[in-house]
Amino acid sequence: AMEKSYMSVFLLLVALSCALAKEPPKKETKAPKETKETKPKLPQTLSRGWGDHLIWTQTYEEALFRSKTSNKPVMIIHHLDDCPHSQALKKAFAENKEVQKLAEQFVLLNLVYETTDKNLSPDGQYVPRILFIDPTLTVRADITGRYSNRLYAYEPSDMPL
After folding, report:
1. pTM score, two decimals?
2. What residue spans carry the Basic and acidic residues bias annotation (predicted)?
């Protein structure tokens, strides 16, 4: 019986010393974590280069919620990283001061993946396309680009539009 209690105390001490010997978890500060993740390529924010000073939402649902609560319309930009037309439009959009100022009036979302929501591809799943949704959560079919076969397509030359 005595050996059992010695063994129990011994195991308890071993367990305790193991627990205490482990280093305390290091408190992570935000900055190093971000730099670790973003060092290999350029920093990737929700703006994805469309306007780093603008406030972007992460999901369609978040954009709709913000639209309803702020009474601002939503601007959704569908694009792809490896699409030259998307890249050209992004550059023109980000460099145009008037467009950037105007963009502040919207709840902003840019998507690099296709959505299953048919409201977001009313005339097809092409990129780049920009849709506007008013605070009543209605896609504005009256705000379109200049192409009849791709209503929501825009090009760098369309910035004044």
Report:
1. 0.71
2. 24-40
